[in-house]
């Protein structure tokens, strides 16, 4: 793997530097955050530090890409961890780094597509639908191809359309648009028989860690949920994370009926009303098999929620003393009704409910 040569995507790099004002994908170096010159409270400090981290990361990646932009072949040394996983050693700029870094990396040696190679051309086009996202990445291969065909003019005229700003993976989708602009020129030039492309088509399994575990343990009832059965190009892939959300909701409903604690029942009810989605539990499901601690999993879920308000509550401790605690209430999104709220204690109960819910879903973790 270390023998595979890569290079910098100079077209994308130059576009981001010269025409960032069109899509504003990068943070303007001269932009001053609203919290930069004030005395920040805790939540403002957290938001400000996130902004600074993102800004510095973008700057590092762009500077590294500029440094290597004229190097014909770049090689990434990799390391193997004790779980059998491979990681590039360099920081910031490699094919497993941030989306910006991945979009700025091409294969150094091109593949040649002939006009008659329908399968390869369709594979290249379908990748654009995956990058665009907005649910399209969970649709069938055929639907992604149809979407690209329907939006072809906006794709090749990316600088005049709003598709890039609408995409879930904006940098990767912009890189795809640049490549399709080249491909469109190729199609319109009858004197050229082959199209040279260096664009990496990045693949993602259906939570492939669980795919491997399921195959190794022969948990056959999960094969369909993890897209391990043979399927056609017209079939939408199964959504494994939604499968787990359904199992969690079943477990929460059982918890309401089986719990002897009124407080715990209320937590189960609030969690059900919250309306969990795949995005709330995706990172928890991904990291649970790698022994992530409950405290970390709680944080992952809270990071996907919106803080609604805080509330002071007087409680009595074990010694009979009264004290005031601050409770933060969260909702699923800005449009969610104010009565569909949960607090940190509810989320802690949710995390503790994960193992039995996953076992019921056929997972051995």
Textual characterization of the structure:
This protein is mainly α and 365 residues long. It has three domains: 1-109, no CATH class; 114-204, Helix Hairpins (Orthogonal Bundle); 240-360, no CATH class. It contains 15 helices and nine strands. It has helices spanning 10-18, 20-23, 42-68, 99-103, 118-132, 141-150, 152-156, 163-166, 170-187, 208-217, 240-258, 262-274, 278-287, 294-303, 344-360; strands spanning 6-8, 78-80, 86-88, 105-107, 111-114, 194-197, 306-316, 322-331, 342-343. Strands 7-8-9 form a three-stranded antiparallel beta sheet. Strands 1-4 form a two-stranded antiparallel ribbon. Strands 2-3 form a two-stranded antiparallel sheet. β7 (306-316) and β8 form a beta hairpin. α14 (294-303) packs across α15. The two termini are 31 Å apart. The mean pLDDT is 88.
Strands ordered across the widest β-sheet: 7-8-9
Low-confidence stretches: none
What is the average per-residue confidence, as pLDDT, rounded to a whole number?
88
Return the domain count: 3
What is the helix/strand order?
A: EHHHEEHEEHHHHHEHHHHHEEEH
Oligomer: single chain
What's the short story on this structure?
The chain is mainly alpha-helical and 365 residues long.
Features:
365 residues; single chain; mainly alpha; 3 domains; 12% strand; Helix Hairpins; globular; three-stranded antiparallel sheet; two-stranded antiparallel sheet
């Amino acid at each position: 793997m270390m023998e595979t040569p890569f290079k910098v995507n100079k077209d994308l790099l130059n576009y981001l530097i010269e025409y960032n004002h069109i899509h504003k994908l990068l943070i303007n170096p001269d932009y001053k955050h609203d919290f930069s010159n004030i005395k920040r409270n805790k939540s403002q400090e957290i938001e400000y530090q996130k902004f600074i981290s993102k800004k510095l990361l973008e700057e590092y990646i762009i500077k590294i890409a500029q440094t290597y932009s004229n190097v014909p072949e770049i090689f990434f040394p990799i390391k193997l961890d004790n779980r059998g996983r491979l990681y590039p050693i360099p920081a910031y700029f490699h094919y497993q780094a941030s989306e910006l870094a991945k979009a700025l990396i091409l294969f150094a040696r091109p593949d040649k597509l002939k006009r008659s190679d329908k399968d390869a051309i369709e594979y290249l086009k379908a990748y654009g639908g995956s990058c665009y996202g907005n649910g399209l990445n969970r649709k069938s291969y055929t639907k992604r191809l149809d979407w690209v065909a329907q939006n072809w003019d906006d794709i090749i005229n990316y600088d005049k359309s709003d598709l890039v700003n609408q995409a879930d993976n904006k940098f990767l989708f912009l890189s795809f648009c640049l490549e399709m602009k080249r491909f469109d020129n190729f199609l319109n030039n009858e004197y050229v028989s082959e199209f040279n492309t260096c664009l990496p088509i990045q693949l993602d399994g259906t939570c492939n860690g669980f795919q491997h575990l399921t195959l190794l343990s022969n948990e056959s009832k999960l094969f369909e949920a993890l897209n391990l059965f043979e399927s056609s190009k017209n079939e939408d892939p199964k959504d494994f994370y939604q499968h787990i959300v359904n199992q969690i909701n079943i477990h929460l409903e059982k918890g309401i009926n089986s719990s002897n604690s009124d407080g715990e029942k209320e937590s189960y009810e609030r969690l059900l009303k919250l309306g969990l989605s795949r995005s709330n539990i995706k990172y928890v499901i991904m990291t649970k098999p790698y022994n992530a601690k409950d405290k970390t999993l709680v944080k992952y879920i809270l990071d996907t929620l919106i803080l609604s308000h805080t509330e002071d509550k007087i409680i009595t401790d074990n010694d009979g003393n009264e004290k005031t605690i601050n409770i933060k209430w969260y909702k699923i999104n800005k449009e969610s009704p104010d009565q569909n709220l949960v607090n940190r204690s509810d989320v802690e109960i949710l995390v503790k409910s994960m193992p039995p819910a996953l076992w019921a879903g056929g997972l051995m973790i």
